[in-house]
Amino acid sequence: MSRMLLVATALLVSGLQAIAEEARTWTNRDGREIVGTLIEKDATHVKLLVENKRFRIPIDSLSEADRDHIAKAKVYPELEVEARTVKVDSNEANSKYDARKVSVKLEKLAGRKVVVRVVWIGKGRSGVDFHAMEEKQVAADGEVFFSTVYRPGQGRLLDYRGYAVGVADDAGRWIAVQASQKPYERFIYERAGEAK
Q1: 193: number of CA atoms within 13 Å, CB side?
Q2: What CATH number did the domain enclosing 130 receive?
Q3: Sign of the alpha-carbon dihedral angle for 158, 126, 174, 28
Q4: Is 148 inside a domain boundary?
Q5: How far is CA 67 from CA 36, 55, 145, 179, in A?
Q6: Taking Cα atoms as reference points, which of 70, 8, 1 lies closest to residue 42?
Q7: Residue 40 is part of a domain; what is its CATH number?
Q8: What are phi and psi of 8, to 5 degrees?
Q9: Per-residue pLDDT of the chain (196 residues; tens, 9 = 90+)
Q10: Domain for residue 145, yes or no?
Q11: Residues near 125 by Cβ (< 8 Å), separated by ≥ 6?
Q12: Residue closest to 162 by CA, chosen among 188, 144, 137, 189
């Protein structure tokens, strides 16, 4: 295949968000409870994530303990992540190499420090599997680049299949995960020794 520019964009639209909070039980003034995660707050309302659905709730409808918790809670805006292939250099006819470059654009970091991980995925004799992994620490909005080369004789997989991108907060929690193909997101968790 001759040199070409591929653009495969995937924006994060899942329930994984830039959350500094863990799920907890919230109680309204009538004593009714729900379990959810605080994902946004302003002067009069909070937004809770409950079973991947968002609910906007007036703060004054919640218990005094919940209002105290909200006042102290550190909540970040939702992180925007865009990953795309920006360069392909391949010699498929002779199978000597396949070079790829991916851009990961981050917006709304809001002072957070995160780790961006890219797992490169390839196909070898036993099927689709891990090829290589890169990580970079990021502390400001912007774009970071990752690249790899698939070559025969490296003891790695030879044929490019895709990539997965994960963004972890300073506590090591995955706050954004996406991939060139949805099934490849599992490689982020597998490389970390985690279950999805």
Answers
A1: 1
A2: 2.60.40.10
A3: positive
A4: yes
A5: 15, 16, 42, 38
A6: 70
A7: 2.30.30.700
A8: -125, 100
A9: 322 222 222 333 333 444 457 889 999 999 999 999 898 888 899 999 888 788 999 999 999 999 999 999 988 888 899 999 999 887 766 667 888 999 999 999 988 899 999 999 988 777 888 888 999 999 999 999 999 988 766 555 567 889 999 999 888 888 889 999 999 999 998 876 554 4
A10: yes
A11: none
A12: 188
Number of domains in the chain: 2
Of 78, 105, 107, the closest CA to residue 17 belongs to 78
> Which one, of 26, 15, 38, 152, lies nearest residue 95 by Cα?
152
Domain assignment present for residue 173? The answer is yes
Within a 10 A sphere around the Cβ of 144, how many other Cβ atoms?
Answer: 15
In whole angstroms, give the CA distance from residue 103 to residue 7. Answer: 10
DSSP string, 134-189: EEEEE-SSEEEEEEEEE-TTSSS--EEEEEEEEEE-TTS-EEEEEESSGGGGHHHH
Q: Is residue 4 part of a domain?
A: no
Nearest CA to 101 out of 130, 152, 143, 154 is that of: 143
For residue 36, give its domain range: 24-72
Q: Assess contact for 115 and 137: CB atoms under 8 A.
A: yes
Same domain? 91 vs 126: yes
